[in-house]
Design brief:
Elements lengths: L1 E8 L3 H12 L5 E5 L7 H4 L31 H14 L6 E3 L3 E7 L4 E6 L2 E10 L21 E4 L13 E5 L3 H11 L4 E5 L6 E2 L8 H9 L3 H21 L1 H18 L3 H7 L11 E2 L3 H5 L4 E4 L3 E5 L2 E4 L4 E3 L2 E4 L14 E2 L6 H5 L17 E3 L12 H22 L3 E4 L1 H15 L3 H4 L21 H7 L8 E4 L13
Parallel strand pairs: 1-2, 1-6, 2-3, 4-17, 6-18, 7-16, 8-9, 8-16, 9-12, 10-11
Antiparallel strand pairs: 4-5, 5-6, 13-14, 14-15, 19-20
Helix pairs in contact: 1-11, 6-7
Length: 495
């Protein structure tokens, strides 16, 4: 049975970043398990027309691998995918990836202080398990009566069927979130008729995007410090926006821009009323587009302000009683964010899954380590999401924390590191108390930030700076640590 010091699950931005960070700290015995056939995770899977980042490109990258060649202020999917591939290649990560290998089950063995990992390619063991599958991975398709009998084409935006030609087709789009805002304008240009089913109106702000000119790219590439300055400027702008999430009155001021943008783009007062949200800006994920509203005003497009109740033959029936015949249904309904499928595959020493521990409400200490699961780390975990910073910023803060724990374990000879349950509960109580006054919780909507129990298990309620500070120091008093001398436990720490 093959053993590794560290097993990383997933080869997206989190997994690649973890591999690089381990190498930087002298940990070279690791393997990445990737069920797909390529790296980049979300940016490999989401190939829908118009797919792009809604965070400025200079921020949406690893700090240790700045990309001075972005062609747009907000990069597109293909460009981001190539960037992630390049980073993996430059840091010699490909040789450590097992493509086409899915983690099926991982269970902690208390006797050996190891993780027993069942994969589609066999069983391996590890001293440390890093879950890097990410929350934007498994598509969420709502259960709709009769959908399985629909005679036309059905797919989710993250599993786009590029072989199906939408030209001249009658298309129903279910969902109006971040993905739909990007692909709806592209579908509108081809479809004979487009029906957009909107359960809740969303605030859509103008996107300050443009193609970087050759001279601007040359400046970022050749002038020392130019790219760093751009990154700091973008970070400062996003952090200023972050004040609004913690002070809803600021968001109510900013949302006037959303109202003005809607008024400028949509002249029909009836459609404008349909598209005007009732919640405060920031209660749901911020959406940016310069084309979405324009697309909805086209004569071939109809917005249905209702959920889909059922599908009967080729007819989509809305909860408002409307019926529409279509040739294709596209779901822009997001992902299993807080009910991450990987949680059903990770088990404690007694055989209880992470899902069973969480009971629908994910919790972790500093969003990274979990009581009951020694030597395990979850990246982009619960209570770390914000509406105003890059996933890379959160990720790198976590990776620095993970590196501290593993380095200290090596120094002290620890074979087992687990957060104390009381430390985890105290941290999460602080988070929940602080969330009460944020726009996430008080903005008048229900979003994917809330789990099945009605608890906000997604958001970080403070500034990014505070997150960086809290993850900057490993507090040993919050953990139970063991330096085992038992003969059946390996002498190499955490391996």
């Amino acid at each position: 049975m093959r053993h590794h010091e560290v097993v990383i699950v997933g080869a997206g931005i989190s997994g690649i970043g973890a591999a690089v960070e381990l190498r930087r700290h002298g940990i070279d015995d690791f393997v990445l398990l990737e069920k797909g056939d390529a790296v980049a995770g979300t940016w490999r899977d989401n190939t829908y027309p118009g797919c792009a980042c809604d965070v400025p490109s200079a921020l949406y990258s690893y700090s240790f691998a700045p990309n001075r060649e972005w062609t747009r202020l907000f990069a597109g999917q293909e460009e981001i995918r190539r960037y992630i591939e390049r980073v993996a290649g430059e840091h010699r990560i490909f040789r450590r990836i097992r493509f086409g290998t899915e983690m099926q089950r991982a269970q902690w063995d208390e006797g050996s202080h190891r993780w027993i990992v069942d994969t589609s390619s066999g069983v391996i063991t590890a001293g440390v398990l890093i879950a890097a599958a990410g929350p934007w991975h498994e598509p969420l398709v709502p259960e709709i009566a009769g959908l399985d009998t629909f005679p036309g084409e059905v797919f989710h935006s993250s599993r786009w069927n590029h072989r199906y030609d939408l030209t001249g087709k009658r298309v129903a789009v279910v969902g109006t979130g971040a993905s739909a805002v990007q692909f709806v304008p592209e579908v509108e240009r081809k479809a004979a008729a487009l029906h957009v089913y909107q359960r809740t109106a969303q605030w859509v702000l103008p996107k300050p995007d443009y193609a970087l000119r050759r001279a601007e790219r040359a400046l970022l590439r050749s002038v020392p410090g130019a790219h760093s300055v751009l990154r700091r400027v973008e970070y400062s702008i996003m952090e200023t926006l972050g004040l609004g999430f913690r002070n809803p009155w600021i968001m109510k001021v900013i949302q006037q821009l959303g109202k003005a943008w809607l008024r400028l783009q949509v002249s029909d007062p009836r459609l404008r009323r349909t598209l005007t949200p009732e919640h405060t800006l920031g209660c749901k994920r911020l959406l940016f587009s310069n084309e979405y509203y324009r697309a909805l005003t086209q004569p071939t497009v109809q917005v249905h302000p209702t959920a889909v109740a059922s599908v009967r033959g080729n007819v989509v029936a809305g909860a408002d009683g409307s019926e529409t015949a279509v040739d294709a249904i596209i779901f822009g309904t997001g992902f299993h964010i807080l009910d991450m499928p990987v949680a059903s595959r990770i088990f404690d020493a007694q055989g209880r899954s992470l899902d069973e521990h969480w009971k629908g409400s994910p919790q972790a200490y500093l969003g990274t380590t979990i009581a009951g699961f020694p030597n395990a780390f979850v990246l982009l975990g619960p209570s770390l999401g914000t509406g105003h910073t890059s996933a890379f910023t959160i990720l790198e803060a976590q990776l620095g924390y993970v590196a501290q724990v593993l380095t200290r374990a090596r120094q002290e000879g620890w074979t087992r590191v687990e957060p104390r349950r009381e430390a985890q509960e105290t941290f999460n109580a602080r988070v929940q108390a602080a969330l009460a006054g944020t726009v996430y919780n008080s903005g008048g909507c229900r979003s994917y930030f809330f789990d099945v129990n009605g608890r906000n298990s997604f958001n970080w309620p403070w500034s990014t700076r505070r997150m960086l500070n809290e993850l900057a120091t490993f507090d040993e008093t919050a953990f139970d640590v063991t330096a085992s001398s038992r003969p059946d436990v390996t002498t190499a720490p955490l391996s």
